[in-house]
Amino acid sequence: MTTARAVLDAIDRRFVDPERGVVLDYVGDDGFVDHPTADDLRADRPNALAWWTPAENGAFFTGIHLLALTRHGREDAALAGRARVAASALGRLASVGSVPGFVARTVADDLVTHPRMGSDDQTFPLVLGLWRYVRSGLAAPGETEELRRIVVGVVAAVRAAGWSVPIDGGRDAGFRGTFAPHHVVPSARLLLLHRIMAELDEPRRAEWLDLYYRKLHEEGPESEGLSRRGLLACGIDYGPIGAPSSYPHRPPFWTSGSAQLALAALAELEDDPAVRADLQAGLARGAETALPHVALLRWEPQWAELPFAGRWRDLLDLWRPQPAASDAVRVGQEQSIRWENGTPRKHLEDTFLRAPAWAALIAAQHPHPQRRSAAVSAASTALGGVDLDAPATSALLPLALALD
User: Is 269 exposed, middle or buried, given 0-12, 13-18 or 19+ CB atoms closer than 10 A?
Assistant: First the structure.
């Protein structure tokens, strides 16, 4: 049975950048890692989202990494030390921007210059990871206060922007991503942000709790008359194996996993038994429908022979100016075709490692201990056939949080 510690050791050994402290998406053939330079990032190369570069999900993945390190570091001094490194990296990513509320995906070698577009998928795991770390007792007193200040500043600024995530580059730079829509994923995240602020922004605790319950019962035009409480009680039906993802009702595992973590935290914090039961019902639905997908987890030794060059500079002839977020997305999507063709291992690792690993993490949030144990056991058993040092991507990261 493979343990969380084994996964954490493999991730730290191969995918944690020693200078930045962030978790990389991938390491190319023969350990090749080509980070964008400060000049590249200032020029939006390869795109303003840093898609296809090694640390394009630095804030996202490092937030999940910190959650795992925090969970397992309470009785392991070495893991607690790694948690401090991850927390420091996340604190940096939340501090380098010029616009309040901005969270950077990664930084250049100068540890300051950064891609100017983040997203809600980057911001939320960062906040979640830092919150769990702060309340765990692993942080030193001075560290706790600094991280508390950072988290409160980010969330307060995002709230002031109508729960939209700002782009760096001035007050009129715009936004990319939002927590406002009435769907399960943004609703779970939005509500937990209120509960986090009720803990960390102590002078406004009563205000944040009042806002939380208002948002919980608020209906929206996208939700067919359901309140956010009703949406979360329905949960996510991930569908049978082979069913295509379709946002918002059947989102991909990897981009909705943090919302399931949010839903689990909301149930943990909720004092009202009726509300807690609704939250647990939604949590159980997501867990039950995710569990069958864990069986897809596997590794074939011949996959390691396929190339994963990691040479994103080969995409630069597709570059063009990207004044708006929509322009950056368009450029990134056009580059993706060539990127996928040049990295055939990526599709295999996404399908047979990343998706089932996130499904396992979602299934492991089941509110009933026996069902949670079944999910953990299934993932651990399937992982026994995987060489943890073989993948080119950090796809197994969520298992560091899912497993015991």
Answer: middle
- The HSE-up count of residue 251 (CA atoms within 13 Å, CB side) is 20
Structure tokens at 3: 């343990």
Residue 350 CA, chain-centre distance (Å), reads 15
Burial 124-134, CB ≥16 within 10 A → b, else e: bbbbbbbbbbb
Whole-angstrom Cα distance, residue 115 to residue 47? 8
Distance CA 28, CA 11 (A): 15
What digits encode the pLDDT tens for the residues 195-248? 999 999 999 999 999 999 999 999 988 767 899 999 999 999 999 999 999 888
> Using 50, 70 and 90 to split pLDDT, how confident is the model at 170?
low
Q: 């909705």: which residue's tokens?
A: 256
Closest CA to 403 of 385, 384, 379, 382: 379
pLDDT tens digits, residue range 96-125?
999 999 999 999 999 999 999 999 999 999
pLDDT over 90 (residue 309): no
The predicted pLDDT at position 220 comes to 86
Contacts of 104 (CB under 8 A, 6+ apart): 58, 59, 93, 94, 96, 97, 114, 115, 118, 168
Would you place residue 169 in the very low, low, confident or very high pLDDT band (cuts 50, 70, 90)?
A: confident
- pTM for the whole structure: 0.97
Among candidate residues 35, 7, 1, the one with its CA nearest the CA of residue 361: 7
Tokens (6 digits) for 17: 């950048």
